[in-house]
Amino acid sequence: MGRKTSDALEILDQVTGDDPELRRMIAEETLNSRIAQMIYDVRHEAGLTQAELARLINTKQPVIARLEDADYEGHSLSMLQRIAAALGQRLQVSFVPGTGTDG
């Protein structure tokens, strides 16, 4: 019997095994969740409501709500740049080495 763990990454590793498609899907969902959280965090740090941020970038509040939803898959680089500019931030995107199973 294997040892018990509470480490989420180890548990995911055990569940996904060598399934590259499942690993790709998990990585994509993780990225969507991180982006949504980053938008939420930077908006809160600026002390803005969703409606106020929407006005700053010339869009509507429901758009901001969707962007902050971890299940949303439509994050665009141009929208992220608009948010960064409106909040006096700089958007930084980088490529990092993969694990070899990312397709």
Automatic annotation (TrEMBL):
<dbReference type="InterPro" id="IPR010982">
    <property type="entry name" value="Lambda_DNA-bd_dom_sf"/>
</dbReference>
<protein>
    <submittedName>
        <fullName>XRE family transcriptional regulator</fullName>
    </submittedName>
</protein>
<dbReference type="InterPro" id="IPR001387">
    <property type="entry name" value="Cro/C1-type_HTH"/>
</dbReference>
<dbReference type="GO" id="GO:0003677">
    <property type="term" value="F:DNA binding"/>
</dbReference>
<feature type="domain" description="HTH cro/C1-type">
    <location>
        <begin position="39"/>
        <end position="94"/>
    </location>
</feature>
<dbReference type="Pfam" id="PF13744">
    <property type="entry name" value="HTH_37"/>
</dbReference>
<dbReference type="InterPro" id="IPR039554">
    <property type="entry name" value="HigA2-like_HTH"/>
</dbReference>
